[in-house]
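Milestone 3.1: sequence recovery, worked example.
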């Protein structure tokens, strides 16, 4: 049985083949994501993987709706696997906001599902770090969320030579569209065209823009001028104060494909331009109100960073550590009459928090030793009866091959 296209198996290392996805690398990324988010005072949340279909059909925009894994459930409900978690968190915040002090700073690591054409950097499921701030309209929050994105990437060993955050403004593009006689009802259509400008054939873009009454030359001139809005200038200044100026640049090629953005928007890319976007986000001040049917009105902003492109980039830059089983002790059972005592020892070591391995069944001693080497164990421990019949533990440090003989009762302190 084959797995479905666009889905992944995650293996523990060493991997069966270099193309396989590593569960160790995934955990390494998750640990780093969590630790950096917590450093910024963010709290973890999660929501359901399956949601009512209409959570997405009105809120996210057509592009994502075309990629939904949706179906009708046995209770006749139209449902969808989550393609993103932003509408979910907007709903959660609207429902629970009164219990929390503002600004609300939350993060999550959901697995998301999009029925996309499978290609490099884009699959049908991915894990996505989401960090969002609710209840703060000041641009200090935009700078804070971008600083967090930068530190998330730095936390994984990437530097300003590896990636750049391209900053833009949905608002600036909205004003541009209005000024160029665009029909406001078709603004989202316009954003979609700009969003794809770098990936689309130029003739196709020109034709689509002409259909909206917008000249390609005007769009190009606006991008080239790259005149920062007041918000963007303030964000850049704030980041400069933190010593993070070199990680960002103003780039109006970015507009974001999703419908709900209202202000500063941004995307993270590798400097070489070899990969798809690593992360994307921005301000979406109207979504909480929309999702709560007008009950709760709250400014919001955040970003999503997927694991797929990120892991490809980390591999490319040699930024993934070597992973092993992390075995600390291998208990060798060379004398089967000592298996009971050896099991007691294994248990004592594990109770003390030591990663401990041993052979489940009787095996030749050289095979047990070879296994200890394969597992990268730091030491081996072997019980032996001395001539008086007293059981002693022989502890060997594998790096130095030094051996010491100790009383098994005090072994934990000797390792
Ligand atoms: P997004 O740009 O659709 O934004 O996704 C964010 C990131 O998730 C992308 O930059 C990419 O790394 C990853 N990603 C998206 N789709 C796929 C895919 N099919 N395969 C692999 N990776 C993928 C959002 O989802 C927004 N909800 C983010 C956000 C949070 N905005 C505000 N708060």
């Amino acid at each position: 049985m084959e797995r479905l296209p666009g889905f992944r198996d995650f293996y523990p290392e060493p991997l069966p083949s270099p193309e396989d996805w590593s569960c160790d690398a995934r955990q390494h990324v998750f640990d780093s994501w969590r630790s950096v988010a917590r450093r910024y005072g963010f709290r973890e949340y999660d929501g359901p993987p399956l949601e009512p279909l209409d959570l997405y059909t009105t809120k996210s925009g057509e592009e994502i709706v075309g990629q939904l894994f949706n179906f009708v459930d046995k209770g006749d409900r139209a449902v969808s696997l989550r393609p993103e978690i932003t509408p979910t968190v907007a709903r959660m915040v609207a429902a629970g906001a009164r219990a929390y002090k503002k600004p609300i700073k939350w993060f999550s690591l959901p697995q998301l599902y999009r029925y996309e054409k499978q290609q490099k950097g884009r699959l049908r499921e991915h894990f996505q770090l989401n960090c969002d701030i609710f209840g703060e309209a000041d641009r200090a929050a935009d700078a804070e969320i971008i600083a967090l994105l930068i530190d998330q990437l730095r936390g994984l060993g990437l530097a300003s030579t590896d990636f750049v955050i391209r900053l833009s403004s949905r608002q600036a593009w909205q004003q541009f569209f209005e000024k160029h006689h665009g029909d406001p009802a078709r603004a989202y259509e316009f954003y979609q065209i700009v969003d794809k400008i770098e990936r689309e054939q130029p003739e196709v873009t020109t034709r689509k823009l002409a259909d909206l009454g917008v000249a390609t030359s005007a769009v190009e001139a606006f991008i080239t001028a790259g005149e920062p809005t007041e918000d963007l200038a303030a964000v850049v200044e704030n980041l400069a104060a933190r010593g993070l100026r070199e990680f960002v640049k103003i780039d109006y090629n970015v507009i974001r494909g999703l419908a709900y953005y209202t202000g500063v928007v941004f995307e993270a890319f590798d400097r070489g331009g070899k990969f798809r976007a690593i992360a994307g986000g921005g301000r979406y001040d109207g979504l909480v109100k929309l999702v709560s049917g007008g009950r709760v009105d709250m400014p919001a902003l955040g970003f999503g960073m997927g694991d797929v492109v990120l892991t490809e980039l980390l591999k490319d830059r040699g930024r993934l550590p070597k992973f092993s089983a992390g075995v600390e002790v291998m208990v060798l059972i060379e004398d089967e009459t000592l298996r009971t005592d050896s099991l007691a020892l294994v248990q004592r070591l594990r109770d003390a928090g030591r990663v401990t391995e041993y052979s489940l069944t009787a095996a030749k001693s050289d095979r047990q030793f070879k296994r200890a080497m394969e597992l990268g164990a730091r030491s081996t421990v072997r019980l032996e009866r001395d001539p008086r019949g007293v059981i002693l533990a022989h502890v060997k440090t594998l790096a130095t091959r030094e051996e010491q003989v100790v009383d098994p009762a005090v072994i934990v302190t000797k390792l």
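The CA atoms of residues 30 and 301 lie 22 Å apart. The longest strand covers residues 125-134.
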